[in-house]
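so my prof wants the structure for this chain in the C-alpha cells format not the other one, which i didnt know existed until like an hour ago. anyway here's the sequence
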Amino acid sequence: MKKIISNWGNYPTIEADIFEFQQIHHLIKSKQSFTLRGLGRSYGDSSLGERIVDTTKNRYFLHFDEEKGYLTCEAGISLAEILEVFVPKGWFLPVTPGTKFITIGGAISSDVHGKNHHKEGSFCKHVVSMEVLLASGKQIECSPTKNVELFQYICGGMGLLGAIKTATIKLKKIETAYIKQITYKAKNLEEMLTLFHQHEDSPYTVAWMDCLATGRNLGRGILFTGDHAKLEDLPLELRDKPLEIPKRRTLTIPFYFPSFVLNPLVVKIFNFLYYHTSFQLGKPQIVDYDHFFYPLDSLLEWNKIYGKRGFVQYQFVLPKENGLDGTKHIIEEIAKRKMGSFLVVFKVFGNPNKIPQEGSKKVIEFPFSFPKEGYTLALDFPLQPELEELLSKLDEIVIKYNGRLYLTKDARMKKEMFYSTYPVEDFLRVKKKYDPQNQFTSLQAQRLGLITN
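here's what i got, hopefully its the right format
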C-alpha cells in the first residue's frame, strides 16, 4: 500500500510502500531493502524509506516477573501502553523521553534518554535481553552476555542491524503515580549550571531556557527537579488511590498554523512571559507523572503549530569540560540572528551507561548511542529560508567543542559532520557482519553514508 508519509517534524515528506510487520520475512527472503518504523515520533528521516515496515501491530505483553520487575513484550508496544497497565500495579519505566507515544523498539533503536540520565543512564542500560530478526532470516537473542557486540550496536543503532521482535526491560518500583516537583529560577547560564550541580542528587532534572536572552541574562531559565512521591508525601485526598491519576483532558491541534504565527516577536514575548511566570519556587509540589514527564502529550498533533513546511529539532550534546563555553557560543549565535525557539530543553548527561558484564571484568557500553557526559540542548526551529545557514553555523560550533547531534532528531546533518563525531567505521564493520546486503536501510542512513552500495 502506497502512502504519503512524514515523521514528527513533518519534514521530509515522501511516498512509500507500507508493509505489515508479518510481511518482513517475505521482504528478507526476496532480498528487498526496507525501513523499520514504529509510531513515527523520530523527527526527520531516520524511519523513512522507499519500503516501510510498520512495527506497531507487533504489540503484545508476553511475561512479567514481579519479583525482578522484568517485563517481556513485543517491540511494537508503546510506552503509553506499558504505563497504562503497570503504573496501577506500582511499576514505572526506568527511563522515559518527553513523549510516551513511542514503541519499545524505537526506544532501543534511539537509546532514548530522559530527565534521569545523570543518575540512571539511557534506556538501553535497562534492557535485559532482545530477540532480533537478522537479514539472514535467523532469529537470535542478544544481551549484555549473549551476542554482545550486536547488543551494543543495536542500542542506538537506528534500526539498521536487525528487527527487534521482543525485548525484556527492567521496570522500577513506585509507591505512587505522583512526582514531588521543585522549581528553581536561574538568572543566566552560570547560575543554571550551579543549580544543576547543587541538585545532582535529585533523580530527575530538566530545564527550560530562554534562548533569546542576551548579555548578563544569557542562558536564563527555569530548572525543574523531581522524585517519585512516597505515600506519605501525598495530600490526604490522594492517599486512597495513590497509583491512579485523573484522566487528562487532551486537545488536538485541528490544522497547520500559518507561518506568520511563529515570528521572532511572538517567541520573544512568550519567553519573557514564561520566565516571569509566578512559579512556586523552592517548595515541593505534588504533580502526576503525566504532568511531569509528558506535558506536551496532552496537546495532540502539536507539531502542526510549526505549519505545513514542518520544523527541525536541533539537539546536540557537548562534553562537560566544553559545555559552558560551547552552550554560550550557540545561544549567542541564535540570539544574534533572532531565530529563537519556544521549546528549549536543557539537561545534564551523566556517565552511568556502563554495564558491568556478569562473570567478567568487562564493561558493556553503547558506542553509537547519542548521550555522553556533558550538557545537551534541544531547540525547535520552523523551516524557513534562513534556517540552514543558522544550523550550519551551529554545526561548526558543535564540532569545535567536540559535541555531536542526536540522530533521532536529525533531518539534515552532513555526512562529514557525522563521520567526524560518531564511530562510523566500527558501526559499518558490525553492519557488514549482520547485514552485508544492506536490507535494513533508511533515508537518513543513505544521506549519512551508512549505506554504501
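also thought this was worth mentioning. The radius of gyration is 21 Å.
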